[in-house]
Structures are given as structure tokens and as C-alpha cells.
Amino acid sequence: MEEGSLRIRKLLEHWMEHNDEHIARFLEVSGEAEKLGLKETSNSLRLAAETSGEVSKHLRKALNSM
Fold it and tell me: Which of 27, 37, 41, 63 has CB atoms 3.0–4.6 Å from 33's, for a disulfide?
């Protein structure tokens, strides 16, 4: 694999992993917010997790297209 392609592959892998970590943390904190009665905050964090899931989907698609 060409050096430039390998660099892009490594970046995509890193971004996917990092983004998935954010998703998990958003959901964790959403649960904490819900327990504190912060319903709107909890809902917004869940939406952030869903949106980030879409980002991860596109990153995986980009990686699979290589």
C-alpha cells in the first residue's frame, strides 16, 4: 500500500476509535444527567451520540472504500 494511502487509513482508524469513545462518554454522561433531572441536557447528549454515530458510519464507509 502506498505511503499516502496508509496514512489516510491510519487516520480513519484513529478517528473512528476516538469518535466511538466520545459516543460512549456522551451516553454515559447522558445517563448521569437524566438521574439528576436534567432531561434536556440528557436528551441533547443522546442526540450528540446519535449524530456522532452517523460520523462513525461515514468514516467506516470511507475506510471500506479504500
Answer: 41
